Amino acid sequence: MKRLLLPAMILSLALTGCVAPTGPVEVTRFHAQDIAPLGKGTIAVEPAPGHDGASLEWKAYQAAIERQLALIGYSTVPAGTASTQVAQLRLSRESYRPERSGGPVSVGVGGSTGSYGSGLGVGIGINLSPRPSEQVRTDLGVIIRDRASGTALWEGRANFTVRSGSPLAATSLGAAKMAEALFKGFPGQSGETIAVK
């Protein structure tokens, strides 16, 4: 029995090293008082005003949003096609390197006096940790509007930050994760911010 347990433990530890760590997706949603029109009818996913819908990255997020809309009951149609509702998609991605807090060297001085004399001490600290790794932050926003009136029926925002070397920094995996988090429990509690793992 013990002979079988050890290889199984080693295998499970090895496989956990293959799994990419995922941070939570922070999601905030808002919806109109009347949620009856949501989740039914035809809908087209189009770029929000001022956003480019021609990039491959945008198209990956568009496809992920369309999949989630179909799962909640919509019939998706191509962008620009007549539909009862439109989902306007905003997308921004940026890479940055977090700043290290404090300097690489710190000096501390302390002293004391008492009835047995006085003392003075000096301490030097050297930060040997590596520079923080580059991060990729993605912000996704979707507004579902009634096509005829332009009235906003639902709005969702999601943001997600991962290391640039993480598999989730790739558009295809990140798009699917963010779209799933954004529409989880649709339409959601209006005004509430949640973290979806």
From TrEMBL:
Q: Which InterPro entries match?
A: DUF4136 (IPR025411)
Q: Which residues form the signal peptide?
A: 1-19
Q: Which UniProt keywords are present, listed alphabetically?
A: Signal
**Record domain DUF4136: where:** 52-188
User: Pfam families given for it?
Assistant: DUF4136
Entry keyword annotation includes Cell membrane: no
Task: Decide whether keyword Signal is in the record.
Answer: yes
Name it.
DUF4136 domain-containing protein
